[in-house]
């Protein structure tokens, strides 16, 4: 029986989902025979996946305006979104010429469904569970734009066909769209992938491997400055440092549960011990060993703990490591520093007694917020998510219900007591326990996943971790996982975009450049470089035979915080003419005064 859905036009996500159908309608009319994938609402808009290969067509960014025009024509008509439930057999007949839709119908049939839901809009019919607006007049979308094309594997699997994904953005008002486009333009100007290349910080080389970052001298220096600060603060706060290898025996990962729960994100086993002939024939032998690249550091820290007995008096133990881990991410999901296959976690594990858990959790929350503040992010820049298990998906959850209930309740209590702005996120817990995820909002208001505070009651059981309690009996400790940056790669990407490449003074790879006006001023310029370098200030002498204007432009392009221009007047009076990156002329000052000021700013980590 045919029905019309009465969805609220005020629900922007429903409207955006409906816009995805309008996009598919327009493409189907303009490119008859195109094969349809899926088209959900996403943040700020919608997308739809298409396969143009069966009709020998290709689509370019120039085609988007034509498709958008057809969408606008469709929106002017009063077309209903008519919902109908039909049988599996009817659906198969309806979508027999649409292989991807046909496959989805078969998937629903395998799941036990005897009916599916379709929506008809004008001459267009789509397989969809909804909801949608009642008619195209109810969309309440005054601002939308088709933005870009991308490749996307069907169902996200590299083993499936590559489809063409068309992205669009949609807002209730044209003003919201205009504001979004301005911010997006600014985001493009801040893109860490572009700035990373322009500032000579890093690159990713396909011959080395996708998702594997090569750090250039300047980028490696920024990394080291952050890492040194990280080590200093951890030692101050009672952490001890440990180190672990990059690979581990497969049996370790089977025992930890990673191979069972996390193997799809891990690289396949490395088998060693075969002869060269056996290796060429890909023959497994009885005396060979299997190793796995580590996706996490935790099992190694557990084995360090189990290497010797422990007393309740020793706890808590806080062990920290900047450990590089490896996870297999699909090719299409890789993105600069934010989604890579090899990354360094600023990891730590706290092993403690039950009566110490709450204090340790609070200390970690304070440490996270302290580190954010040190890099220029206040509490208002932080959103927190309490990631909980999905009770309906028990096969994804290690451990028993009692353990989950206790750990979830403790994290919720800590979040409330520390007055964190947090939301509960069901189904986003790690397989071994719940967690608090901390996300930073950058200068454009975008969220970046950074710190994680995880509660693990699984590994202590799996590895039979114990300590001798005050009664002389063996007792199971609790284990807290935490990362403050999340990964160095993502955090550096965040810093580059947040500051638009103008890193805080203490992090800038070159803090001061000295620009002699001519050859006669190079002697004084070198004296300044010597004085700055002796005080640990990172410098660059720009003594090329170029005009001062060109040197200034190069210094601005490299985003060097301070440019010191020196000519006859400055050399004679022992002064410097100061320019600040992005702020222009800052006047002439005595070099001694400049030196005192910059040392103080670096010491206080001021910009």
Record keyword descriptors for this entry:
607 residues; five-stranded antiparallel sheet; Rossmann fold; BirA Bifunctional Protein, domain 2; 35% helix; 29 strands; eight-stranded mixed sheet; 19 helices; alpha+beta; globular
Describe the protein in words.
The chain has 3 domains: about 1-190, Threonyl-trna Synthetase, Chain A, domain 2 (Threonyl-tRNA Synthetase, Chain A, domain 2); about 210-270 and about 290-500, 2-Layer Sandwich (BirA Bifunctional Protein, domain 2), CATH 3.30.930.10; about 510-605, Rossmann fold (3-Layer(aba) Sandwich), CATH 3.40.50.800. Helix content is about 35%, strand content about 25%. The protein contains 19 helices and 29 strands. The chain has an 8-stranded mixed β-sheet. Strands 2, 3, 4, 8 and 9 form a 5-stranded antiparallel β-sheet that branches. A 5-stranded mixed β-sheet has the order 26-25-27-28-29, sandwiched between helices. Strand 25 (about 510-515), helix 16 and strand 26 (about 540) form a beta-alpha-beta unit. Helix 1 (about 10-30) packs across helix 2. The protein starts with a strand and ends with a helix. Residues about 1-10 have low confidence and may be disordered.
């Amino acid at each position: 029986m045919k029905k019309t859905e009465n969805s609220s036009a005020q629900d922007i996500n429903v409207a955006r989902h409906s816009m995805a159908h309008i996009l598919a309608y327009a493409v189907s009319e303009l490119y008859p025979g195109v094969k349809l994938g899926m088209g959900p609402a996403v943040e700020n808009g919608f997308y739809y996946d298409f396969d143009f290969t069966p009709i020998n067509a290709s689509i370019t960014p120039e085609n988007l305006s034509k498709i958008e025009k057809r969408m606008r024509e469709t929106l002017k008509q009063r077309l209903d979104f008519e919902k109908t439930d039909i049988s599996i057999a009817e659906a198969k007949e309806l979508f027999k010429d649409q292989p991807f839709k046909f496959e989805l119908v078969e998937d629903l049939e395998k799941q036990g469904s005897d009916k599916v839901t379709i929506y008809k809009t004008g001459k267009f019919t789509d397989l969809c569970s909804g909801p949608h607006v009642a008619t195209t007049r109810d969309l309440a979308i005054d601002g939308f734009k088709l933005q870009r094309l991308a490749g996307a594997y069907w169902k996200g699997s590299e083993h499936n066909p590559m489809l063409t994904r068309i992205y669009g953005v949609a807002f209730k008002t044209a003003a919201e769209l205009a504001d979004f486009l301005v911010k997006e333009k600014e985001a493009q100007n801040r893109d860490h992938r572009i700035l990373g290349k322009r500032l000579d910080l890093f690159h990713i080389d396909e011959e080395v491997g996708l998702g594997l970052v090569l750090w250039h001298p300047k980028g490696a220096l920024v990394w080291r400055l952050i890492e040194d600060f990280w080590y200093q603060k951890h030692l101050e706060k009672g952490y001890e440092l440990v180190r672990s290898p990059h690979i581990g025996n497969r049996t370790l990962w089977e025992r930890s549960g990673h191979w069972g729960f996390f193997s799809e994100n891990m690289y396949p086993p490395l088998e060693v011990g075969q002869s060269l002939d056996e290796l060429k024939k890909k023959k497994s032998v009885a005396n060979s060993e299997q190793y796995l690249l580590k996706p996490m550091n935790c099992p190694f820290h557990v084995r360090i703990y189990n290497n010797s007995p422990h007393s309740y008096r020793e706890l808590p133990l806080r062990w920290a490591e900047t450990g590089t881990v490896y996870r297999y991410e699909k090719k299409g999901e890789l993105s600069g520093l934010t989604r890579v296959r090899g990354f360094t976690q600023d990891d730590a594990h706290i092993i403690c007694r039950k009566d110490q858990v709450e204090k340790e959790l609070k200390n970690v929350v304070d440490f996270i917020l302290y580190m954010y503040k040190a890099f220029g992010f206040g509490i208002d820049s932080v959103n927190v998510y309490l990631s909980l298990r999905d009770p309906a998906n028990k096969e994804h959850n290690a451990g028993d219900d009692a353990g989950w209930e206790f750990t979830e309740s403790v994290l919720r209590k800590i979040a409330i007591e520390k007055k964190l702005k947090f939301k509960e996120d069901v189904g986003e817990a790690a397989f071994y326990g719940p967690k608090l995820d901390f996300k930073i909002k950058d200068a454009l208001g975008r969220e970046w996943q950074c710190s994680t505070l995880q509660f693990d009651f699984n590994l202590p059981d799996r590895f039979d971790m114990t300590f001798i309690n005050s009664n002389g009996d063996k007792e199971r400790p609790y284990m807290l996982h935490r990362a403050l940056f999340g990964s160095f790669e993502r955090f550096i990407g965040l810093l580059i975009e947040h500051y638009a490449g103008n890193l805080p003074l203490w992090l800038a790879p070159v803090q001061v450049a000295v620009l002699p006006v001519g050859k006669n001023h190079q002697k004084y310029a070198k004296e300044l470089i010597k004085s700055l370098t002796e005080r640990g200030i990172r410098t660059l002498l720009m003594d090329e035979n170029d005009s001062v204007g060109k040197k200034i432009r190069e210094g601005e392009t490299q985003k060097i915080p301070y440019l010191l221009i020196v000519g006859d007047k400055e050399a004679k009076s022992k002064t410097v003419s100061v320019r600040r990156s992005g702020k222009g002329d800052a006047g002439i000052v005595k070099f001694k005064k400049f030196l005192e000021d910059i040392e103080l700013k670096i010491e206080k980590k001021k910009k």
